[in-house]
Amino acid sequence: MLGVIARALICALLTVCTLVVAQDTSIVIPTTAAPSATPLPSGEDYTYAGCWNETVEVANAGGVRALAERGNSSTNNTMTIGDCLKFCSSVDAQYAGLEYGRECYCSPYLSSFSEKLEDSNCSFACNGNGSEICGGQLTITLYNKTSGSTGVAWRLQGGGQATWYALAFGFMLFAAFLW
C-alpha cells in the first residue's frame, strides 16, 4: 500500500502544467519592422528591458520557454505592445515578452538561460501596430514590471529547472527508500 502511495506521489510531483490561453488560431506571418519602428519605453507599469533570446532551443534548457515558469500566454493577429502589457498586468506577472509579432508571454520569472541581446535582434513588427517591435524569431522584446516591485532580483538565478531536477531526484530517492 505504501509503495502505491509513493508511486502516486512521484507521478503527481513530476507533472508540470502551464496555463496557455489561445485567442486566435489563424496565423499571420510577421514582417520585419519598418526602420522607424521601436519598442515602447514603458506602459502599464512596465519598463522596456531590451531584446532577449528565447530558450526553447538553448542547450540544457529542456525546451522550456524563457517566460514559461508559472506563466501565461496570449496569441492573436492584432497584437500590440499595449495589449501584451495589459494582459500581463491582469495576471500580475513580473515580466511581459513579445515574440514573432503576435505572441505575448507573461511570467513571474525570466529563465537564467535567457541572455540580453542587441536590440536589433528583435526586428518583427507587431501585427496590430507596424510601428512597434514585437520580438523576432526566437527573440523576445522584454518588459519588466516596475511598480509594486518587491525588490527581488528580476532574473531567476541558477535556473528553475535545475532546482526542479534536484527536488525530483530527492523525491525519487525517498520513494526508492520506501520500496
Automatic annotation (TrEMBL):
It is a single-pass membrane protein. PANTHER family: KREMEN PROTEIN, PROTEIN SLG1. One of its GO terms (cellular component) is plasma membrane. The chain crosses the membrane at residues 162-178. It is found in: Membrane. The keyword Glycoprotein applies. Keywords: Glycoprotein, Membrane, Signal, Transmembrane, Transmembrane helix. This is Carbohydrate-binding WSC. The keyword Acyltransferase does not apply. It comes from Septoria linicola. InterPro entries: Kremen_rcpt, WSC_carb-bd. Residues 45-146 form the WSC domain. Residues 1-22 form the signal peptide.
